[in-house]
User: What shape does this take?
Amino acid sequence: MKKRAMILTAVLTAAVLAGGGHFPTDIGNRLTQTVSAAKKDSDKKDDTSESEGSVLDQATLMYQQYNYDEAIKLLKQQDDFDTNKDYMDLAAKCQIAKSTLVEYPLEQITHVFFHTLIDDTGRAFDGDSKSGNYNQVMTTVSEFNKIIQIMYDKGYVLVSPHDMATVNDDGTMSRGKIMVPEGKIPFVLSQDDVSYYHYMDGDGCASKLVLDENGEVKNEYIEADGSVSVGDYDLVPLLDTFIREHPDFSWHGRKGILAMTGYNGVLGYRTDIAYKTGENLQNDQKKFLEDNPDFDYDQDVADATEVADAMKAEGWEFASHTWGHMNATERSAEDLKTDDQKWKSYVAPILGDTDMVIFAFGADIGDWSGYSSDNPKFQYYKSAGYDYFCNVDSSQYFVQITDQYFRQGRRNLDGYRMYYNPEMLSDLFDVADVWDSSRPTPVPQM
Assistant: This one.
């Protein structure tokens, strides 16, 4: 019909031009009406086609990410399901795939984590007082990309602690169930300290997370010459891009968890209240305000919130890393309460509430045997709405699921672990296949 409308339009135009405008009125009206009707019909079909494409695209993505029940539900909600072959074929594929799923043992799900990634190793490993620490606890962009590709090739697929355990209405916990195709290996991924702290300025890492012209989450990156680029310079946009190309790397649309402090703000924005009040400022915060006299606190809060909302819509989650990067093992329950109140006041309004604590330094509030009901730190965190807790543990698996909490150990995939304990990572990748040759050796001892 669209082609016919174009032909009729061309005939009408040519006839008018050829006849100097003297065209029989009735024929002209009929042609005009036919063209108009054809265009409306064409537009209507285009809208229907786009709608069908959108539904099919959504359901296909669900299928690729093993979310078969939701894909079937979406397809069957369509009025024309019974007459749409594409819908019915995809629903049948979902049913068949669902019948082959196997339940994965929750206690055999590993959790890996990274700090901010290094893009320019020349600036990060320049021999100054910070380069040794970067070498120990950070991973380069090159290494991250290779690690993720190898893990994908091995069958790893991203899940969340919220899939491994659920919170009941009465506050107790129940075991979750993760069903995957045979050969797939669920794992959890997190990243610490995504605040782009002041001390990292000029050291070859991203400077903040931003939304690009397409509304996608990217990094702002300040080049060595001072110019600003926008692109994939850290874990979040790198993983987003990878999953767009490999949607089956994500189970039900899961991404990763960002463990967030608040004392320098979040996501590269200076959102802590100290930047507004000017009180109790650290030296690097004072310098930031001096160097940026036009700094707009409210705008930074608004921009950070917009980025966080976009991330959550794409499957990212946030956890408390404590507001002040506190050592929870060493600090008192009262200290942790005061710190958490700051997190809830100045971080939660931007990132949203969370029920997860990822301990800074991996410093846990209990030993390997678990949390007891008379542990004052656990009592506080539980009363404050936290049910999921993560420490750092070099074991391949460390998972505890009780009726009161979920607890999981995390494995650091950084320079120190890759250099000194490559055998501990052999289930994930061969360090020789990912090691960045620009990383100085030996990596400094802790």
The radius of gyration is 27 Å.
